[in-house]
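Suppose you are handed only these lines of text.
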Amino acid sequence: MEFAAFAERARAIEGESADGAVREAVTELLRAAGDELPVVTRYVQGRVFPAHDATKLDVGPSLCYEAIAKAAGRNVSAADVEARVAEVGDVGEVAAAYDFGSQRGLASFGDGGTDTLTVAAVDARLRELATAEGAGSQDRKRDLLFGLFTDASPDEARYLARLVLGEMRIGVGEGTVRDAIAAAFDAPVETVERAIQVTNDCGEVAVVARTDGEAGLADLGLVVGRPVGAMLARAGSVREALDAWGEAVVEWKFDGARVQVHYDGSEVSLFSRNMEDVTDPLPEVVEAVERAADVPAILDGEVVAVDDDGAPLPFQEVLRRFRRKHDVAAAREDVAVQFRAFDCLHADGDDLLDAPLVERHERLRSVLGDEAVVSTPDLSDGPDEIAAIESESLAAGHEGIMLKNPESAYTPGRRGKNWLKRKPDVETLDLVVTGAEWGEGRRANLLGTFLLAARAENAGGAGADANSPRFETIGKVATGITDEELEAVTDLLEPHVRSEDGTEVDIEPAVVFEVGYEEIQPSPTYSSGYALRFPRFLGVREDLDPTEADSIERVERLADRQ
Ligand code: AMP
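From them, the structure of the protein bound to adenosine monophosphate can be written out as follows.
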């Protein structure tokens, strides 16, 4: 594929605003990509190398501006380019505005001056650029970039400049590419998604989808030696975990750096969360795995720095070890590290991503033996037991705990609800609904965005009595409610509507919601003087009437305790 054709399509994609149209345009691009399908699949996301490959171009803005200035001709300096970028806010726009044709032929690159740039040629030159190292490498990189720009038309220059600086920004992320691969080569989206997770390489997935279809994608598996994305956690509470799963795997949360261990049966490789190879700086981890493991495996865990007594040190100490390229032995003398394994993605030929966490833990123990550090006991269903584990973790100098769904699969690179880093449980509030807004479109017949109020205790003044309490507003809740709940809540509230003004509805205090939140903040926005951060609907307290709703005094007490 010619790079001009890629640039033209990228331009068209950039001009689309609707998700469907973007997906459609990316689908067409992938279908038209020919032999360059893997590269095109990456470039359209602004990626020069596959996600599992930590190779970097190492081209900063100033080097790029110098190359653009040189290609633009004698009257243009890097400072001019920089000033234009500051003004326009887009290096692509600036690169596209210069006439690079005049410098053609001056390019020091061997095939400089060719009229048509292909995607393959751009790929080859960028790869060469990435390998330039040591003395003179910056000059070499600048010359290579200069060569590329002199061969580029304005549109090509626009996307070259953005690609090189990692600022593609045409609105195409991994999700769009996944959907486009599925549409272009007629494969189910879930199969493509899984293939992307195990290979960590959209380009490869696109090629397999095109040549071998769904069956080929389903055959793709983890490769020992090639890192996948680390499964990520959300903040959550013990109550949330137990409500959702009944019981939870509770693990200590170590304060260190994430490491993926790949052992192929003879050699160990270690990868950081951004796929960098960190084998050399961490010999203790390599030795520990070599000592314990006797089958090929891929393990996930945290590397922590420890003092002479094995107590954890601040995580900055781990980072120092990670970055250390020379004198590793001396660094090791200063600060020792330990590997705390908590997951097993592959063992002895079996991919375990879809196996439940408890089974992966078993495999982890069988791979690492005594070196395995996973939760004990495995499962907890009581808040007290979990609190005790948390205290132990904190007492041992760690960060707290992680709560994990015992039945959950390992989803590389995804942040789901199956791993929760514990946030202190906040007490919920029972608040009265005093207003709402009618929804829009599909939800025009439903009330949404509910105004909440707390009870003003001892509301003084003439005529105040316990039967007509005052309510002061404290926030609005719009999240946490399902469509069905919205219908039920609308039916419940409608008889109490006092007046309407446009979509805004004033409601007499009658219905009490139970509401969760992350924090209570002082705020002038609401009449109570407080506002809830991230309020979420938990349910209707049909058993409570407004006089039993929480008071502003309780809100104050909770706010003080935070
Ligand atoms: P945070 O960095 O606060 O988002 O917390 C998630 C990170 O905690 C993970 O990416 C790991 O690096 C780290 N971590 C420490 N202990 C564990 C554990 N037992 N399970 C999962 N992640 C852990």
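What can we learn from it? The longest strand covers residues 336-347. The domain at 47-165 is CATH 1.10.3260.10 (DNA ligase i, domain 1).
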